Amino acid sequence: MDASLSLTFPDGAKRPFPIGITGAAIAGGISPSLLKRTVAMALDGEVRDLSDPITADARIEFINREDPRALELIRHDCAHVLAEAVQELFPGTQVTIGPVIENGFFYDFHREQPFTLDDLPVIEKKMREVIARDRPFTKQEWSRYKARSFFETKGEAFKVELVDAIPADQTLKMYAQGDWIDLCRGPHMTSTGKVGNAFKLMKVAGAYWRGDSSKPMLTRIYGTAFARQEELDAHLKQIEEAEKRDHRKLGREMDLFHFQDEGPGTVFWHAKGWTMFQELIAYNRRRIRRDYEEVNAPQILDKSLWETSGHWGWYQENMFAVKSAHAFMNPKDESADQKVFALKPMNCPGHVQIFKHGLKSYRDLPIRIAEFGIVHRYEASGALHGLMRVRGFTQDDAHVFCTEEQLEAEIMKINDLMMSVYRDFGFTEVVVKLATRPEKRVGTDAMWDHAEAILRKALGRMEAESGGAIKTGVNEGEGTFYGPKFEYTLRDAIGRDWQCGTTQVDFNLPERFGAFYIGSDGEKKQPVMVHRAIVGSLERFLGIIIESHAGHFPLWLAPEQVLVCPITSDADAYAERVTEAMLAHGLRARADLRNEKINYKVREHSLAKVPVIIAVGKREADETTVTVRRLGSQAQTVMSLADCIASLTDEATPPDLKRAKAALAGG
RNA sequence: GCCGGCGUAGCACAGCGGUAGUGCAGCGGUUUUGUAAACCGAAGGUCGGGAGUUCGAUCCUCUCCGCCGGCACCA
Description:
The protein has 667 residues and is an alpha+beta fold. The chain has 22 helices and 33 strands.
């Protein structure tokens, strides 16, 4: 008799089994129906093929399709089914990889003629056939040689490359589903039928082999799958909802901004969008007034300055160069001014120049220079995306020049400010990641060691002192060419993550530009420079605000706060009086005196997402009251004009001012 | 930049080898209205730019530009 092992079941029962018994045998031994509904098992919490022989004592759980842990298997199996379907339909198509991703899976194929959207329904149909065949997934271990020659014979060049890339000490696992077989790490469910029908192919896209733009481009087919149809439907519905709050769509509908062909990646801010933009700047300006000096540096500067900073060398492809139009058109004309300027892609060199102007003492430090700096970067055409990725944008930028001793305190101070700003905009979940030295960089390793050590220490403090609001991590090799940085990522109302803030420690630019201060010993000292942006790009941040609120802005940000609508023209004069009173109290109010029914106006202003609609008729005029209707509610509230203004002005007070008011009131 | 798709009136969309329609908005009139669309009328477009094929191109081909979905990139 074989030696035995002991398995612990979820109910706590321990039972002995012969070594090498499979999960399937155990499940089948308990009951045929258990075996039937089990798609995989977990040994000590690790998901495994049900057919795996068990070789040691463990906790065993049987996983059915509805188990949350099965979702990944369903998606992964679905990717295999997709690959089989594609190869059956389109012989000669090469397979590469097909991983599970957030919300679904994809599979990358190589085919002379890339797939298009029209191919998806056909492929889906074939997938349903493959699933209906319900072939078991069977695992085999192959030698490297066998796998390599197998794929070579089939003309699967990419798979050959994958086989070669697997470390020599690892075994090669092949999963067969009927006649179709693929190199795969596993695990899989018991058969293709377990994938079910709650799947959908979503889109096709190009993707570079191994994520490398110098390598061939493959066709990626994205799909998603769920255990049950209702979950798939809910997911599709959610995508639809997300599309409705797309800032590009809302920007058009709400008349906030537009783009046009002549200015790719640059924003035409309309009055309403610009109102929000200015409100954002005003807020940020109030937040920095105490500690920073706000400056404004030139938009174009001689290219030599950018050579000194290193940007010209590292980022030339992404910079706009500027010459006189005459010189541009007549590059050979030596009598013309052929000087080349760069449209600034960053504010730091400008701020260094301001720092350098005049002798600085150690007593002056830290010097914090802020600018709502408009920068231009020539982003790749394919990178442009509404307000989220543009070629001209405004940074809430600042540079702190300080001593090394002051550095950590400055970083923590910046962190406090950032967290406070994010809270004011309703973002409470923040992830801060330390991005360490990249391959392409300037400065000595000693410098980097030092800078990273300081940031690491600060990172630990941030997490510890945040009371759980900050989670931290490390992005190896993701730092800037001149220094390591923190990246602040916010999670919005619908769970999407946005990288906004950044704090960068820089020992290099001050040196390159020869910036110094006079130390207490009378000697010249080099300051440390900290680059920081809180919301990053104001354009982008507004895009995030638009999407996370789906256009239903908090009152203080709403471009139009109040619309006053008379019921009939008899109340026009009163409506104007109400509007004037609101305007006088700083509210953004407007009277709608058009000859339209109240129904029409309510509908129109509701669709325009105006937060407050006020209707006034004879009744209100006689009593100096207003009838208030709030966006998102059908309720009508009658109140005195004075009360209404008092409550709206309070609500429209920006969060920072509200805090100050409350502090005052609290004594 | 790369792969695929798309580009028709301010917006949302039809259409198609014989130079274009619908709805909403806008404009003119009628209507004075109590909380999500009153009625009537007239008007509005070198069908993204350029070139080619054709007797004839919004439609087919090429090319450029832009946008969309991804990939790559993001100081």
